[in-house]
């Protein structure tokens, strides 16, 4: 099940895990496994990638990074197939992503003897990149009656959906808010009026998708396969310059 109506669907270069993720979700639809279980599986896959990186099993590390990306797509697919969307699952997914992103970059710092300051800059960059992508994608989904689990403005805990408790939603929202508020507010400050624009064209969304987590993990995996792990941290620092380019396109061309 797509997140957008057919006429607004675009080529998402970060979403290569969607097809295998859908296959996994379809295989699990008649089991007791829930989307939250699948999210937990991608956490395990991310931890396995880190262990393999530390011990220089680069091919295995690349495999687990890509598997993590596929499972990251599968949990949402399973929620849509089973018709069990939840804010708890949405926040759990996002919390797991940001923690794993930090640990991935921390591991690259460890195995390349890079600067911890550069590692932190890369982490900030990678999170701002993902926030730009998610900000525009969520705005588009909300403006065209697409998937509504994610909200443009996460400024308060939402009302729990069927099958989840309000207490769980409140707890996960508070954790999410602490981890993401700086990044969300930074991008909102840079483009406050984005939600008032017409639906973004497909070419723009495809450009923005290079900031998606799937694309970021794919780059990490390729760098590991070619033993270029020392370039990962510098790349994500420099890559962040495109944030201002994409926001400039939205503000001055797509206004």
Automatic annotation (TrEMBL):
A GO molecular function term, named singly, is:
transferase activity
The protein's name in its UniProt record: CDP-alcohol phosphatidyltransferase family protein
Under the heading InterPro entries, the entry gives: CDP-OH_P_trans, CDP-OH_PTrfase_TM_dom, CDP_ALCOHOL_P_TRANSF_CS
**One matching Pfam family, short form?**
CDP-OH_P_transf
The domain of life is Bacteria
Q: Which PROSITE patterns match?
A: CDP_ALCOHOL_P_TRANSF (PS00379)
EC number of this enzyme: 2.7.8.-
Organism expressing this protein natively: Aquimarina rubra
**Transmembrane stretches, by residue range?**
41-71, 91-110, 116-136, 203-225, 231-249
- Answer whether the UniProt record assigns the keyword Transmembrane to this protein: yes
Recite the UniProt keywords alphabetically: Membrane, Transferase, Transmembrane, Transmembrane helix
């Amino acid at each position: 099940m797509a997140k957008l109506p057919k006429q607004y669907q675009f080529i998402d270069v970060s979403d290569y895990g969607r097809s295998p993720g859908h296959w996994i979700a379809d295989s699990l639809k008649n089991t007791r496994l829930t989307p939250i279980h699948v999210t937990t599986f991608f956490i395990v896959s991310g931890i396995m990638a880190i262990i393999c990186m530390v011990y220089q099993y680069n091919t295995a590390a690349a495999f687990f990074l890509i598997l993590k990306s596929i499972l990251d797509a599968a949990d949402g697919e399973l929620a849509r197939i089973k018709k069990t969307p939840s804010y708890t699952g949405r926040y759990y997914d996002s919390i797991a992503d940001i923690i794993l992103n930090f640990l991935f970059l921390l591991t690259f710092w460890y195995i390349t003897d890079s600067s911890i300051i550069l590692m932190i800059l890369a982490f900030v960059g990678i999170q701002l990149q993902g926030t730009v992508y998610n900000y525009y994608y969520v705005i588009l989904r909300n403006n065209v009656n697409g998937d509504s689990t994610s909200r443009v403005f996460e400024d308060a805990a939402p009302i729990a959906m069927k099958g989840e408790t309000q207490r769980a939603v409140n707890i996960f929202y508070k954790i999410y808010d602490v981890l993401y508020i700086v990044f969300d507010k930074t991008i909102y400050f840079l483009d406050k009026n984005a939600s008032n624009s017409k639906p973004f064209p497909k070419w723009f969304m495809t450009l923005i998708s290079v900031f998606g987590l799937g694309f970021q993990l794919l780059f990490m995996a390729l760098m590991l396969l070619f033993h270029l792990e020392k370039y990962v941290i510098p790349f994500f620092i420099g890559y962040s310059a495109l944030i201002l380019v994409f926001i400039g396109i939205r503000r001055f061309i797509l206004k």
